[in-house]
Amino acid sequence: MKRLTTIHSRSQFAEFRPMKQPNPPSWTLKEKISRLKSTMEAVHTEVLLCNDLDFSSVFQRVVEEKGIGRLLYARNTALGSQIYLMKERTPKKLPELATYDESIENWKEQLFSVDASVTETRGGIAETGSLILWPTEEEPRLMSLVPPIHLAVLKAETIHHNFSEVIQKEKWSEQMPTNALLISGPSKTADIEQTLVYGVHGPSQLVVFVIQSN
């Protein structure tokens, strides 16, 4: 008993030592983009590189190629405003736009009838090839989970080396959301016979637009 008491006493007054964080790789921005792109493409994600000037034309081309007839977007975000202006300027090059501005109970039928959704991202992780999404009132969680095609817009400068760097630089310990999503590819699942199927529990297609500043 004396030995146990001594151990307890030592642990009680031991000096606190924070856990040492691993050093992130020293990749350049170009290397981070390349790593994220190759890692995501390995799990059937489509990654398109563009810049501020040609994003609109690249986006319109993808929408047309995939035959998207109804697109869900968030009108009151920076990306939503850009999509809205695209529609105003070239109405024939973009599909019908739908906004998710009601409760899920009232909008459920419409939510499950859209062809695709487009959302912003909070950042990316080069090491694992992942997107970071923090659902908001404007872009609820279901926007990236229900439509069969998810179009995600990622600013190149928000790509981090690894998850540890994300937590530190974004100060997650001070401002954790209700839920955070890390997305690497389209939804996929396999049955007992190992038959791989896409889109059973989420989007069957994920398209990422990586926008590099001019």
TrEMBL record:
UniProt feature coiled coil, ranges: none
Domain LUD: 34-211
Membrane spanning residue stretches: none
Family matches, as Pfam families: LUD_dom
PANTHER family noted in UniProt: LACTATE UTILIZATION PROTEIN C
Protein name: LUD domain-containing protein
